[in-house]
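S1.2 Input.
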Amino acid sequence: MNRNIITRITIIAFMFSLISGCSHYIAPNMGVDMKLFFDESQYEWPDSNTLSLTLKPKASVPARIAIARVQSPGYHEYAAKSFGQGNYSIVTVRDIEEDSDIEAMQKLDDIEGLFYLNRMMLGSQKLDTDRELRVAAARMGAEWLLIYTVETDYLSEDMSKPLSVISLGISPTVVVNMDCSVPAILMDTQTGYVYSAMEGTARHKQLCAWWTNQSAIDQSRRQAEREAFKDLVTQFKSSWPQIVTGRKLVSTEISLNQ
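S1.3 Output.
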């Protein structure tokens, strides 16, 4: 067989292999089911129509809030890896979170301080429920605990595979759609009472070439995650005044009944 023909066949086979391989990029963000942090023992059902909460809010304001980003066990990606084993792990490196996001939350009324939990505060690597995080937060004098996770899905589609092969994958024919959500709960460190549940979301679309698909997808992922986290911060800023008002009302009622 002519050597030039063999060379062309080899190149085409390589490009199809490249296209197929790129489609198997796996976004590293494996989120945690936030139901893990809702203790079902807090609910009592005296009858089919009545719900009685056994957990009560006790956190004070101004608030010191501990923050924890949790992911599935063994989570790691290019910029960060997690700590802990069990039902979840905790990410101690601020990857998608920017200083401006934390500063914006810090400036809210009735917030005395914000800080992220780290491995030194946790102590044990065994992480199964919210209790481990609540104990770590309590050690640092935080009566409030904000827990969030990052969930990312993606779909990449080559709008013109023949052109990708002809151009050796250099032409920008691939559309990358990245969907990200950042669900979070704000709970009472002492009791586990949940004050609020919120979720930031973002969708990012990017056009790229197969040759650079892996790096382009990861770039799109990081952008979507940053935008989703910013959306979560926006929701927190909007919800916080109502949370504080509700907490102060409960404190007043308790004082009057004593």
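S1.4 Remarks. DSSP finds six helices and twelve strands in the chain.
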